[in-house]
Amino acid sequence: MPRLIAAIDRFTEASGRLLAWLAVAMALLTALVVVMRYGFNVGSIAAQEAITYLHGTLFTLGAAYTLRRDGHVRVDIFYRHFSPRAKAWVNALGGIVFLLPLCAFIFAISWNYVAEAWVIRESSPEPGGIPAVFLLKTLLPLMAANLFLQGLAETLRSAEVLMHNRDASA
């Protein structure tokens, strides 16, 4: 189990570090769009859509990295005062009851939606837009799969704490 958890964590960390560069690209492209529009009175639908694609990619695929780094928002009025073992119970049950089923549900319901977009090679309805809406939609099942993997790792990590009384911060 520790090897599986470590492998998933390595994948998530590498993905997260790569995705972080999308934030830089998004900021630079946004600045370029603003300068071109207001400085030179030139617009680009494709550049504006590219910002949306980068934003969507960053946030959907970055969800697993955020989970790995314990960065998701939660109400922890009570949780923060729990012992490591009690936190492990909450995390394990939350993963099994909520997170993993939600990821499976999102994957299942998005599959046909994405498949249909691929069949017709759905493109932007805007003239001059990016002809790859089907790629943007593909982020939905990818997000669910990535988040499921990291959720599995977090649930297994909590199970290890419960079984072996180990520290959950590894």
Automatic annotation (TrEMBL):
InterPro entries: DctQ, TRAP_DctQ. Pfam families: DctQ. The keyword Chaperone does not apply. GO terms for cellular component: plasma membrane. The keyword Membrane applies. It is found in: Cell inner membrane. Its main location: membrane. GO terms for molecular function: transmembrane transporter activity. The complex comprises the extracytoplasmic solute receptor protein and the two transmembrane proteins. Belongs to the TRAP transporter small permease family. This is TRAP transporter small permease protein. It comes from Parahaliea maris. The lineage of its organism: Bacteria, Pseudomonadati, Pseudomonadota, Gammaproteobacteria, Cellvibrionales.
